[in-house]
Specification:
Radius of gyration: 23 Å
Structural class: mainly alpha
Largest sheet: none
Protein name: Tetratricopeptide repeat protein
Low-confidence stretches: 1-7, 90-166
Helix content: 55-70%
Number of domains: 4
Strand content: under 5%
Number of helices: 23
Shape: globular
Distance between the termini: 45 Å
Organism: Streptomyces luomodiensis
Length: about 475
Amino acid sequence: MTPLPEPPPPQPNTAFRRLRGQLSPSEFAASVRRAAREIGEQVACDARYIGRVESGAIRCPNYAYERVFRHMFPGRTLTDLGFAPRESVRGHGARGPSPARAQVPGPRPGPGLPELQDKGIGKGIGKGIVDIFEECELLRRAFMAGGAAAAAVAVAPRGGTPPRRAGRVGEAEAVAVEEAVRRIRVLDDRHGANSLYAHTAKPLSAAYALLDAGRYSRSIAERLFAGAGELAISVGWLAHDSGRLSDARSHYAEALATARVSGDAALEAHAFCNTAFLARDAGRPREAVRAAQAAQRVAERLASPRLLSLLALREAGGLAGLTDRGGCERALLRARTLFGRGPHDSDPEWMSFFGEAELEGLEAQCWSALGEWKRAVEHARRAVSLQNPHFTRNIALFTTELASDLVAGGAPDAAAVTAGRALVLLDQVKSSRIHRMLDDTARILRPYGRDEMVADFLARHESHETAVARSAATGRTGPA
């Protein structure tokens, strides 16, 4: 086998360093996050990311960061900011649209879209769906720039002798794993899991192949273990959201094993957190409580009140499933008290979704499980109104839950209107979990079909289901 050429050493990005001026890396990272919020973007920028940019380890930012940097420095190109042209790094610029992209349908008009666009939701739906395919293709190639040898190991025949590994695993490979995790999270926040899950098997295999290669420094090893574990959790979540619960359970177990082998408490807490969520959704509330409590024991070492708040909510969800009202209320109170302590430097990067809207939404789920429909509606309304427009999938989720709570609480007309808004979002969000919830709401609404608003929603829902079935039959990307 011909040895692979060594990648060129990274060149410091002096142009970007000049733009930082007198700000420290942490202060500049904070300004990047503020700029992202101004345009409805979501980036988990920290001092280490800024350091990697300035050292030249990140030759070209991902699309989310590119949009933020262009907002911060209007009129400047990536080259002006000291980055390499995207086509020279990613290798996709010279090719035309892929067949997958050519099949992507454009946005479908529907009632309620103008109201959603007022919140910044639904703008550029067609472009967003195309981005799934474009960025997933990049995700599949994420390891090829610096980790071609590891990728070869990843696709070796099972039980066969893997090819000879060339070179050490280093910074480029660790960055590739970390960026793959970030890319998945950003796309999932906007579009849901169904269009993403199939594209993540190869990057996940490659990440664990990097670990198996075994030729890396201790600092790189820590990043690879953490990155591979977080990637397993992200892929597990995509499986969870797309209805593949057994696959999700397997991926979470893989992440938990990785955390324990490497002694990574933060990764272990995250794996237990998602395991608790999965157990609740799978109808195993006692397991959900046990996993959430295990996560809290691990997280006590991490000094993150927001993480402990989320884990208390996971426990509350399990207790609600057990109809333990007293225990659920105590867990909810603990979650709100911890949340009120505010953000902390120790908050994990993956928790960027956890704000006041998520707090309200998870509490709404607890009251719904306990049959307290009025309280469930109150909190679900807050969850929808407070949600950052970036988290389109969560807006669709909480809107669907609000519709379900409204019909259970005896307000079918209001439920139909709300369910109609959720239906519009399902043209943009591909989540089997949310789709099934909306189907359940439609089923419960059918006895109220004489109501004009209910009849209108049921007709639209039936049309949507027909389109989904037609898309599935032809193998095209459908609206669900």
